From TrEMBL:
Domain AMP-dependent synthetase/ligase: start-end pairs: 7-360
Alphabetical keyword list: Ligase
Region (Disordered): 336-398
InterPro entries: AMP-binding_CS (IPR020845), AMP-dep_synth/lig_dom (IPR000873), ANL_N_sf (IPR042099), ATP-dep_AMP-bd_enzyme (IPR050237)
Official protein name in the record: AMP-dependent synthetase and ligase
Source organism, top-level taxon: Archaea
One function term, GO molecular function aspect: ligase activity
Acidic residues compositional bias, start-end: 336-346, 374-398
Length: 398
């Protein structure tokens, strides 16, 4: 299969693909495809090719969405980098992911240059989507686009590489294959549903899977992505009203700030995917009282985002649940010996299924170690977290 956008533009050429929240400018799938084709051609002119790893350190611009799809069109692996990181932290990620180039923008140019300077023994080119202000940075638009022969993607090809949060150690690079991300999109659609008129507001950073997943999924589903460059409680709530947004991903603190500001949210919403941390009973009760369609979810980078997701009805019946595992994903709670526990008992959570990464990319001192110590042929992952299963099969995560 070619890149997903090239298939979508044939099916839905005139459907709105993307709306920029700041000014309401919209792009159809035909418009987005042209942008992606031009971007991909310019990257190829700069030497980016299939199997390269493309680091991207840009704000959530429309052009950043273009880079996501352009990398896939070339056959390169997309590696988003967080703007909040220090130059040293960025340099470590450039090294660990073995990047072939870093794309930046005017606000992130200095950080990108500092990051590649942290790399020992090799030169990593820095390209900018804006006009460069410093030596050592090359404008992406400085070369004319070259023609591209888009490759076919296999399920096992690395689509993107993201980093773990590092809360239990150094951040690890997590490769997600085309098959991982595709399977996650299908399973999520089975749980949340998809409507052609859906509009998903991206409120999370694109270097987290919760922010990146909607970019891929909107092209697969043929729905509309609404993009804002940064989160603020009032502005995000206003965007939902202004653009008839039907879906949004949030962490509990973000949702609480929006409700503290507005009290409730627009009734155009049919999905508020709530994850990243447990939500308080008070927050969930507020959502229930105001008919806000909250879908609490448990996920992890290593499983391409969602693992289990609860419906508003399940949440109303049992506060704290994250529902049942998604289609194709097996969740097992095991004891210290690795044996499944009885219903209602706590233990370690083990995930198995087609969304699970084939394994961490090993570091220099880890070459002799399996990429993922808890993997079984690359399909099983232990998150090291505690959890439990209720008597009727719903997951409850601590």
């Amino acid at each position: 299969m070619r890149d997903w956008l090239s298939h979508r533009v044939v099916s839905s050429p005139d459907h709105t693909a993307l709306i920029r929240a700041e000014d309401g400018e919209a792009w159809t799938y035909t418009d987005l495809d042209r942008l992606v084709d031009e971007t991909a051609g310019r990257l190829v002119a700069h030497g980016i090719e299939a199997d390269d790893r493309l680091g991207v350190l840009t704000p959530p611009y429309v052009g950043t969405v273009g880079l996501v799809h352009a990398a896939m069109r070339i056959g390169a692996t997309f590696v988003p980098l967080g703007q909040e990181l220090t130059e040293r932290e960025l340099g470590e990620r450039v090294e660990r992911a073995d990047l072939d180039a870093v794309v930046c923008a005017e606000p992130t140019e200095d950080a990108a240059l500092g990051a590649v300077e942290e790399c020992d023994g090799r030169s990593v080119p820095v390209l900018s989507v804006d006009d460069p202000a410093a030596e050592g940075v090359t404008a992406v638009h400085g070369l004319d686009p070259e023609s591209i022969d888009p490759p076919d993607w296999d399920d096992s090809d690395y689509l993107c590489i993201l980093f773990t949060s590092g809360t239990t150690g150094n951040p690890k690079p997590v490769p997600l294959t085309a098959g991982n991300v595709y399977s996650s999109a299908v399973a999520s659609a089975f749980r949340l549903g998809v409507d052609q008129g859906d509009r998903w507001l991206v409120s999370l950073s694109l270097h987290h899977m919760g922010g990146l997943a909607p970019v891929y999924r909107s092209a697969l589903y043929g729905t509309t992505l609404v993009l804002r460059e940064g989160f603020n409680p009032g502005g995000t709530a206003d965007d939902i009203d202004t653009y008839d947004v039907t879906g949004i991903s949030l962490v509990p603190t973000m949702l609480k700030r929006m409700l503290d500001r507005r009290g409730t949210l627009s009734d155009t919403l049919r999905v508020v995917l709530l994850g990243g941390a447990p939500a308080s009973d008070e927050l969930l009760e507020h959502c229930r009282d105001y008919s806000i369609p909250v879908y609490p979810t448990y996920g992890m980078t290593e499983a391409a985002s969602q693992i289990a997701t609860g419906t508003p009805r399940q949440t109303s019946d049992r506060l704290g649940t994250v529902g049942r595992s998604l289609f194709g994903t097996d969740v097992t709670i095991v004891d210290e010996d690795g044996s499944p526990v009885e219903d209602g008992e706590a233990g370690e959570i083990v995930i198995d299924g087609p969304t699970v990464t084939p394994g961490y990319i090993p570091g220099p001192q880890e070459q002799s170690e399996p990429p993922c110590a808890d993997a079984d042929d690359g399909d099983e992952e232990s998150d090291g977290g505690a959890g439990g299963e209720s008597d009727d099969g719903d997951e409850e995560s601590d």
